[in-house]
Backbone:
């Protein structure tokens, strides 16, 4: 432990000041309802014609300094909310990474990002422990009775936004970073996964199985040994740590040390108060808790980055044992759902850099010049373009194509190799190359058994094919993951009243049902918009045995949806509860 050890990197407050100075931040001090309007307001910055995720300006991040909720509460002076501050645009992402962005095209910026990540992986810097009394995130500590009791206690004191109002059934931390620990190695993994509020001292988390993420792999070990699992959620991380969350980092490295590699200086860490984990001392908020791996709780619906709602599943239930925070804190939230989105930018630039590193420096395919994972509407993991030097041998072209579909478990459903004269970030150019530079009988390969990954679950088998499949809708699908039309129109009025540039939709801008939905989830979403999410937490409070439903992400069948009886204020359970949907998850 080192007393008096000074911070040598930007925390979130420093980052916001730099974004503001660079003209990359909009500060909104008008009252903003976090349950109904905050995320739809920001959504207009993505679907409106005020700059896009593929241009540096005028796309900006948002700082809300006068947050309210549907219950009439005000959080002004206690807790602000920011959205888009990590990767609202390539320029903002560059600022988060500490990269000088001179307005070059996305490919040139991508090369700088690639070099930054490669350096961090090869040169991690060990974090340094500081005492609790010197950690900004330990200025206020809530434990015990301060967490219990529902309204105005614990988690209910934080202005956590609804992300997809009209469809989500609770406020979600969409930019929170989970800290978990490998029982065998002691290596701490930091991953960005959704987290919903259920009670003042309870929340749920969803960690992707299909991507082979560290959080899920760690959970498996605790379950096998019959031990409770300590977890901590980072809210408002320093930007150089925030970008690590959705990145695919080497499993043998502590992610806090990878962040130190990005910073070129050690991160400050502090011991958590109630769980045996390390936390970043310069975060805004840390939420500590425990998971019983033998139990799961119903979680979701939630709007996902692949453009549909993720419907109700059984996932991890977390008993919150402490909330530590700054006296004046800031919650980071991330626009995800239908791309273009902030999560799309961060994954596009992160994954492209990792894929380029894999092809050039692991497989030594030296002719690879660039890699681009397409974002808008597709959501990054489904369409990959590889740029190769002129006269690259056919063997190397196909080695690169096949490697790009296997480097990450579910990335590369459609992968295209192009020449250096094709801009991989321009879909029209890529389609032009496909239309006129291919002999389809010789140039196309379809291979089965690709992981379904982060996408609507397939109902007929637990995997899919690579490269080309029928894209029509074969069965009812969850709603489009955007706020409802009514709420988006209300948010546009607030946008106009705030004096911001007029917006004209360029992509889909409101959500609508595609058939795979039920009336109970609509009622839950309406309660969330009204600020009554605590009722939804009561509805799912009965935990189910993990083995009874087959494990995390097992779906809830439409006939097996639990309902909240408005007349009796009781929960009605279907016969045979818990019921499991009949589709499979590839583990």
Residues:
């Amino acid at each position: 432990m080192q007393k008096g050890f000074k911070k040598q990197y930007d925390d979130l407050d420093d980052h916001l000041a730099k974004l503001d100075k660079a003209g990359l931040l909009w500060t909104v001090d008008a009252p903003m309802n976090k349950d109904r309007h905050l995320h739809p307001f920001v959504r207009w910055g993505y679907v409106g014609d005020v700059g896009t995720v593929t241009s540096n300006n005028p796309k900006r991040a948002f700082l809300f300094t006068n947050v309210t909720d549907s219950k009439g509460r005000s959080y002004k002076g206690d807790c602000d909310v920011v959205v888009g501050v990590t990767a609202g645009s390539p320029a903002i992402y560059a600022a988060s990474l500490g990269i000088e962005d001179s307005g070059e095209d996305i490919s040139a910026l991508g090369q700088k990002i690639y070099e930054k990540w490669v350096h961090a992986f090869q040169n991690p810097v060990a974090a340094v422990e500081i005492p609790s009394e010197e950690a900004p995130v330990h200025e206020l500590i809530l434990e015990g009775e301060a967490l219990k009791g529902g309204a105005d206690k614990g988690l209910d004191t934080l202005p956590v936004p609804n992300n997809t109002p009209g469809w989500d059934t609770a406020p979600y931390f969409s930019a929170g970073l989970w800290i978990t620990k490998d029982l065998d190695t002691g290596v701490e993994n930091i991953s960005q996964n959704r987290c919903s509020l259920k009670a003042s001292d309870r929340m749920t988390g969803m960690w992707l199985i299909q991507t082979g993420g560290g959080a899920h792999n760690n959970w498996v070990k605790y379950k096998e040994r019959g031990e409770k699992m300590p977890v901590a959620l980072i809210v408002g991380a320093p930007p150089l740590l925030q970008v690590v969350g959705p990145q695919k980092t080497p499993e043998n490295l502590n992610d806090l040390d990878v962040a130190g590699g990005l910073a070129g200086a050690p991160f400050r860490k502090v011991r958590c108060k109630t769980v045996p984990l390390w936390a970043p001392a310069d975060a805004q908020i840390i939420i500590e808790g425990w998971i019983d791996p033998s139990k799961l709780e119903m979680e979701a619906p939630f709007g996902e980055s692949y453009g549909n709602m993720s419907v109700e599943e059984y996932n991890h239930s977390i008993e919150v044992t402490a909330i530590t925070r700054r006296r004046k804190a800031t919650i980071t939230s991330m626009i995800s759902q239908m791309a273009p989105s902030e999560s799309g930018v961060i994954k596009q630039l992160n994954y492209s850099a990792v894929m380029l590193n894999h092809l050039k420096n692991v497989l030594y395919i030296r002719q690879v010049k660039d890699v681009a994972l397409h974002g808008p509407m597709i959501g990054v993991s489904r369409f990959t373009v590889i740029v190769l030097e002129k006269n690259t041998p056919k063997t190397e072209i196909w080695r690169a194509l096949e490697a790009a579909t296997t480097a990450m478990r579910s990335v590369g459903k459609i992968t295209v190799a192009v020449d250096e004269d094709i801009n991989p970030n321009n879909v029209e150019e890529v389609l032009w190359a496909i239309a006129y530079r291919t002999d389809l009988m010789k140039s196309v390969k379809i291979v089965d058994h690709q992981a379904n990954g982060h996408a609507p679950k397939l109902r007929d088998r637990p995997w899919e094919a690579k490269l080309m499949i029928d894209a029509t809708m074969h069965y009812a699908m969850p709603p489009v993951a955007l706020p409802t039309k009514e709420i988006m129109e209300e948010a546009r009025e607030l946008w106009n009243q705030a004096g911001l540039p007029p917006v004209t939709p360029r992509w889909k801008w409101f959500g609508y049902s595609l058939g795979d939905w039920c009336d109970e989830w609509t009622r839950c979403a309406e309660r969330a918009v009204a600020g009554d999410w605590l009722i939804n937490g009561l509805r799912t409070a009965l935990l189910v045995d993990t083995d009874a439903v087959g494990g995390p992400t097992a779906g809830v069948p439409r006939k097996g949806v639990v309902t909240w009886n408005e007349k009796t204020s009781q929960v009605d359970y279907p016969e045979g509860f818990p019921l499991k949907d009949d589709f499979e998850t590839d583990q």
